[in-house]
Amino acid sequence: MPLYEHVFLARQDLAQAQVDALAEAATKIIEEGNGKVVKTETWGLRGLAYRIAKNRKAHYVMLEFDAPAPVVAELERQTAINEDVIRYMTIKVDAHEQGPSAMMRRNERSDRDGRRGDRGDRGGDRPRRDRDDRDAA
Where is this region: Disordered (predicted)? Predict the structure, then answer.
């Protein structure tokens, strides 16, 4: 069976239990159509790049599954009519990623590093020049 990834964004005012119920409903649709959900990841409440339907944030959820094409069509149909889902996307993939997705690894790295990423100290030993210093030079 083909492999798919389905990501949906749920409204910001939903509780985490309601978001989990949406993921379970999607899982149920897939399993009723003889599909198999390989992995479900909840990426949490994250900021949007632009406002969508008066929402500045959304709950992100990703499902990795393998299922026949009619199941994907039914999943997208059910997702589209749900008021709590503001955006969704399903893509066909060649293989599922092993371990956590890039979004989950990104969160772990930022929690692990106490500083501003892995950039290190860029300035070296040079003193910082302010605008007043440039005008005087």
Answer: 96-137
pLDDT digit string, tens, across residues 20-65: 999 999 999 999 999 999 999 999 899 999 999 999 999 999 999 9
The number of helices, as runs of H, and strands, as runs of E, in the chain is: 4, 4
The number of angstroms, rounded, from the C-alpha of 38 to the middle of its chain's C-alpha atoms is 16
**Predicted structure pTM score:** 0.73
pLDDT reported for residue 1: 79
Alpha helices, H only, 7-116: 16-32, 69-81, 102-112
CA 31, 37, 41, 47 dihedral sign is: negative
Q: Please check whether residue 9 is in contact with residue 60, taking contact to mean a CB–CB distance below 8 angstroms.
A: yes
Q: What's the CA gap between 98 and 83, in Å, rounded?
A: 32
Fold of 3-96: Alpha-Beta Plaits (3.30.70)
Q: Which residues of 83-106 are buried (b: 16+ CB within 10 A; e: fewer)?
A: ebbbebebeeeeeeeeeebeeeee
Q: What are phi and psi of 135, to 5 degrees?
A: -65, -35
3-state secondary structure of 85: strand
